[in-house]
Amino acid sequence: MKRLLSRLLLLSLFISPSAQAGDVIKLTQGASTQFSLQENVTTGYSWRIDQNASRNLEILSISDGGRSSGQRRMVGSPSIRHWKIQALKPGRAEIIFVYQRPWEPAPVQTRSVDVEVTP
Q1: Within a 10 A sphere around the Cβ of 27, how many other Cβ atoms?
Q2: Could you list the residue range(s) of the whole structural domain that residue 8 is in?
Q3: What is the DSSP letter of 55?
Q4: Cβ(81)–Cβ(46) below 8 Å
Q5: Residue 37, class by beta-carbon neighbours within 10 Å (0-12 exposed, 13-18 middle, 19+ buried)?
Q6: Per residue in 52-111, pLDDT tens?
Q7: Is the dihedral of CA 67, 72, 76, 78 positive or negative?
Q8: Strand order in the sheet with 32-39
Q9: d(C-alpha 3, C-alpha 1), whole Å
Q10: Signed CA dihedral, 106, 112, 15, 41: sign only
Q11: pLDDT score recorded for residue 72
Q12: What gap in Å lies between CA 113 and CA 54, rounded to an integer?
């Protein structure tokens, strides 16, 4: 029960400074944008791309821009994880981000981002 409550609290604190769930990022071929998600690596949680669940990633180039945090890294302090998304070919892709501790079998949250690339 305590573990479930801590997960619910963690989920209630989750924010995203960029696109919201269900949003579509629209790019022209060759253009790029940055996408960011808040995470809490001091407690073991971090975001990663689920390559198997994502669709049509070959039309994009996605690079991990690392994370930024506040002045001090105290336990429980959030940080922001950044990705650069570049449009390579026209089409539509879905990027599935999962938020989990590496040693746990299932994510506590999943985030889907659609990217539409036009010529």
Answers
A1: 20
A2: 2-118
A3: B
A4: yes
A5: buried
A6: 999 999 999 999 988 887 656 666 678 899 999 999 999 999 999 999 999 999 999 999
A7: negative
A8: 32-39, 79-87, 60-69
A9: 5
A10: positive
A11: 60
A12: 9
| Each residue's pLDDT tens digit, 6-60 | 333 333 333 333 444 557 899 999 999 999 999 888 888 999 999 999 999 999 9
78-99 per-residue burial string, b: 16 or more CB within 10 A, e: under 16? bbbbbbebebbeebebebbbbb
User: What total of structural domains would you count in the chain?
Assistant: 1
Question: How many whole angstroms separate alpha carbon 8 and alpha carbon 59?
Answer: 35
Residue 76 one-letter amino acid: G
Residue 55 near residue 61 (C-beta atoms within 8 A): no
First to last CA, the chain: 51
CATH of the domain at 112: 2.60.40.2020
